[in-house]
Amino acid sequence: MSQIRIVILGGGPGGYEAALVAAEHGADVSIVSKDGLGGNSVLWDCVPSKALVSSAEAMGWMPLAHRLGVRLPSGADIAARATVDMRVVMERVQALSRDQSEDIAKRVLSEGVRLVEGVGRLAGREVVEVACPDDRTRVLHADVVLVATGSNPRVLPFARPDGERVFTARELFALQEVPEQLVVVGSGATGAEYAHAFARFGSSVHLISSRSQILPSEDPDAAALIEDSFERWGMTIHRQRRAVDMERGADGVRVKIGEDEWIEGTHALYCVGQVPSSRGLGLEAAGVELGAGGAIPVDGVSRTNVYTIYAAGDVTGGIMLATTAAMQGRIAMWHALGAAVAPLRRDAIAACIFTHPEVASVGMNAVKAQSSQLPIETVRLPLASNSRAKMAERTDGFVKIHAMQGSGTVLGGLVVSDRASELITPLSVAVFNRLSVSQLAYAFSIYPSLSGSVHETARLLMDRLA
Fold first, then answer.
1. Which CATH number belongs to the domain containing residue 184 in this structure?
2. Per mean pLDDT, which range of 56-60, 62-66, 270-274, 378-382 is the poorest?
3. The model's pTM
4. C-alpha to C-alpha distances, 235 to 214, 224, 296, 354, 355, nearest whole angstrom
5. pLDDT of residue 215
6. Which domain holds residue 377?
7. pLDDT given at position 79
8. What does the alpha-carbon distance between residue 66 and residue 68 come to, in Å, rounded to a whole number?
9. Secondary structure (DSSP) of 57-113
10. Are 238 and 264 in contact (CB under 8 A)?
11. How many domains are contained in the chain?
12. Domain check: are 295 and 306 in the same one?
């Protein structure tokens, strides 16, 4: 029996994770990518942005050092002497991205996957044409095609990025100096992360939010806590304002956020969403339906309306997370190759915003819990009494768990704390496996640890449900 031929358009998490699964199942696999493996996640988004945040967190520790007894030999406060070398920060960020991309390529090649450099498009349901860098066109035949081409930053018509004064997250890593005054437009996860990082680097940050509260998709309690943290670091938040125009000058920019209201800065960063990268792929000619904004609608196993064509990741719209893309890609290949597979569990997706404190969540959130017709009980436990948090002077935050009355099934959870991205894991396991709060509460945790607050919250909720 001949091998099933699979061609994957895009080398991000949806693409390379799918390739690994397909190769493990004996398929003949080709990945078409023009930028190297890793996609947005590794090259321009998750890896570089979180590496940047790590440098910002190093600056964030400085004000605590004096209280923790760490200071210079002269007795001076370290925070007063610390500076940021943005050139070095960005060189490290870009090096980490390159290294991660190369590591992924080595892993994929070791599994026998074929890498084809270029831009691919469908020339029918079973043919992919690749425009190669040497101007040749290469033709690949496929039994199954996976479209995992990701997304690109949305660009407002009056704010075209120039890589000098005006940026989206794609161009930002060309910065060589800390912006003196940074205007960040957009207060979702990406805007909040960058606003947080540059405030710690010493920029005077103005954050433009179209809503009455930043992080509009998150738990309101979490958003309020992050707002308080931002403002304590000197950030100015402009609520219920939208960027409607911009002017550039030799020394800076002016962003118009109202009828006669302008915000001046040396630089502007626009984080106003992502647009699925579905144009020019030949999807219409292959019969693939497109949804709003160019997103590709898929079912629970990542299949489009054409049964041999699948799609994964940002190009499908919806929740644009690297982990979601990777899972969609894996599920697509398991399904296409006849392996046992369950549909994507959208009710069990975990996510994190890497501000300080971090905001990590899984499953049902507070808004859905309050509006649900189900009998749901919620407990929130502040970190103020956690001994490990007090040792590290990191008591800003809380744990919140939502559970079903009667069965005690964990439906969702939220952790707002230092390293929340790690602490959400037990709640993610509980939601995915539909565990009860008693099962979570009876598990052991370490003392002293931040994770102890997750178990303590579960115990409080268990008692309330008894």
1. 3.50.50.60
2. 62-66
3. 0.95
4. 13, 14, 38, 17, 13
5. 97
6. 347-465
7. 81
8. 5
9. HHHHHHHHHHHTT---TT---HHHH----HHHHHHHHHHHHHHHHHHHHHHHHHTTP
10. no
11. 3
12. yes
